[in-house]
Design a protein that fits this description.
about 300 residues, mainly alpha, Growth Hormone, Chain: A
Amino acid sequence: SIFILTLFDLLSVIAVLIIAALVGLSRSLDMIVRQSVLPIIVSSSQLQNGVALLRTGRDMTQIIGPVFGGILLESVGIGKSYLLIIALHLFSLLFVFLIPGVPNTAIKTAQSMFENLKGGFSYVKVNPFLFGLLAVAFIVNLTAFPLNNTLLTVIARQVMEIDAAGLGWLMGTYSAGSLLGSLLIGYFSTMDRAGRAMVVGSIFWHIGILIMAYMQWFYVSLPVLFFVGISQSFAMVTMSMMLLKYTSAEMRGRVLGLRQLAVYGLPVGVLISGFIAENSDVSLALIFNGLLGLFILVLAIAKWPEMWQRR
């Protein structure tokens, strides 16, 4: 769409916002389907490796994508850049047909989308462990993800006073830590205490956010962000693995749909963080997010202690 609008010189802010909303919707559907078919592709003993590999691909694109995209935009312009992106998407589509064992027929159902979501909610209500995982997913989107989605840009500009290249190093280091965390988890076929790894990863993730609240030095912040990225992977990869492992096959799509709804904690968190940063200080926003996240995590662990005990 952006390529066509650019070709006819019709690209505008409103058009970009509409396209971004549609891309967000399609990405949510893509993630649900991709994670739903993962247990079909790999055996249960390799599920942890599969989830880690899926996350590794995402982390690698977060490192390479901005650099490659910036070079393309600078050298050939926005139109030709998006033409190459279209070609890459079409090329990746070919690999979908090479996935073995995935059903290619849809099962008709009389239930609407909202009825399916309601059924998924009823399912997790009688499975407190799954409800706890979804609660943690919402918590980290609310309090942890605003760091790399919004606040890191503010830190770079207002606190460290560095340019876009410096911000790129901050984001790249964060993503590199996340990549290493995914690789470390993928190295092991099974994890004896996946629940504990998720909880500990979430806690250290928020501790890293609190440390960043007092960070004013660019080079010192790099290892901190690397540590935060590793913690994020330990939390998110193990969470996804346990959701797939402990959800029945017929309910997997519905539960993953609820998991995607937990992402809507992010825009709420970004709004709150942005408000605090604009009206007070970005350090206060980080302290607020770190302390709030740790507090809610402790409550969640007390409410659903199964998360600490599950393998």
